[in-house]
Specification:
mainly beta; 2 domains
Length: about 270
């Protein structure tokens, strides 16, 4: 039988949306100060909503440390580390999600209300599951950008025999120069792959016109997530960034070369095969 116990409540919070159906779901900070909204999958929850607050702007009770009830999003076992699913329910943590506690009771199906120990910690599931989570910063030059269709840009070195690199996502910050890249056509997108240009893709494309406009002389930033599909890990292979289009990103002036640069912050882990 589920129960709450010795649970601390965050004072002074209000609902940032209609949370009347969100009791015992994970919530996160809203963009408005001192307001909370329902968590999405794997997000860093502030706590678990305790009441049935209605419309936006009303006070809401959020437990952030101790034993709380949680609505299950799927079956899990006693002791499983839990994170939020896409609707704020508790599910077994997976790589890339934030672990927010431990199951004190088993859930047999979605919709079960069980007890969990909520822990105010900000650790991603990869580290708590014993995986070697890493992050690396890569500065990409203008020359590399202009020749990425012919010469793939190296990102992460090979991990060694018996291991594979698992790409989780990366931030991409475009640092403008004096001249943009004008030969940006349909399909001239940048994609993370294993090994070389012929390797298997592990990320979604960065569209060089809509996600970040490489022709504009303005700083911009985007997040590139991992590919939302099954990827076959390649042993001891590097990660590269490839221009998958038919042509290179050239310059926007007949007398000059595009000179903007890119800084990437890449999250990945090494998986022992």
């Amino acid at each position: 039988m589920s129960f709450n116990g010795a649970l601390e409540i965050v004072p002074g919070l209000q609902a940032g949306a209609d949370l009347s159906s969100n009791q015992f779901h994970f919530v996160k900070p809203h963009t408005t100060a001192l307001q909370v909204v329902q968590c999405n999958a794997g997000q860093d929850a502030l706590g678990v909503q305790q009441d049935k607050t209605g419309t936006a702007g009303r006070d809401v009770a959020v437990g952030f440390k101790g034993v709380t009830k949680i609505v299950a999003g799927a079956a899990f076992s006693v002791g499983d580390r839990l994170m939020s699913d896409a609707t704020g329910r508790g599910i077994t943590a997976t790589v890339g999600g934030y672990v927010k506690g431990r199951a004190l009771e088993a859930a047999t199906a979605a919709g079960d209300v069980v007890s969990m120990l909520f822990e105010a910690r900000d650790e991603e599931a990869a580290s708590l599951l014993g995986l070697d989570l890493k992050m690396v910063t890569v500065d990409v030059t203008a020359t590399q950008i202009r020749t990425a269709a012919a010469i793939a840009i190296p990102l992460v070195a090979a991990p060694g025999v018996g291991k594979s690199l698992i790409f989780l996502g990366m931030s991409c910050k475009f640092l403008t120069g004096a001249v943009g890249y004008d030969s940006v056509g349909a399909g001239e997108d940048l994609t993370v792959k294993y090994t070389d240009a012929s390797g298997e893709a592990v990320s979604l494309h960065l569209d060089t016109t809509t996600d970040i406009d490489f022709n504009a002389v303005a700083d911009d930033e985007a997040w590139i997530p991992a590919l939302a599909a099954v990827v076959n890990p390649v042993e001891n292979a590097i990660l590269i960034w490839d221009n998958v289009g038919a042509g290179e990103l050239a310059d926007s002036d007949a007398d000059s070369d595009g000179d903007g640069t890119v800084q990437l912050k890449i999250s990945y882990y090494e998986w022992t095969l």
